[in-house]
Design a protein that fits this description.
39% helix, six-stranded mixed beta sheet, alpha/beta, single chain
Amino acid sequence: MKSQASTNSVLRPCPGSEKSKIRTLHGILLKTSCRNRGIVDNTVVYAVIDTCVLVSALRSNLGASFESLQAVRRGDIRIALSVALAIEYESVALRPGLVPAIGAEDIQVVVDVLCKLAHPQRIFYTWRPFLRDPDDDLVVELAAAAGCAVIITHNINDFKGSESLGIRAITPAQALNLI
């Protein structure tokens, strides 16, 4: 567990910690309730999870991507999610052959569970074009609108420039080191 001083730049209050019973799939999200089990008092790492991390976790239950989703389930990482990003999660994960071990219905269950665990965030303004990839722009817009200091991604270079908005792109392994 890191000290409060070393993690202040990524700590945010946990908005709306509602309890919800959830089904399990592929060991990613176990039946539990979302609870405030943050780093210090009522805080957790508050982040946006990029689609590549979700896909990586669905493909293998070994590694930091999978463990990051486990941290979301436990409440150690609190995520923000917009309708646009939830649709992207589903459409990318449902691409033929991308996640061969899991069926379409089960992928939809995982996305539904993430929606239930996440802080729903509406986006009333856009920063586009901000990054090279418009799909990455929607992630930065969500992080800015939700007040997240962190985007968890495997594609750190894709988010260069987000620092100017106070948003830092980190890997799943780096996110796990914060909790």
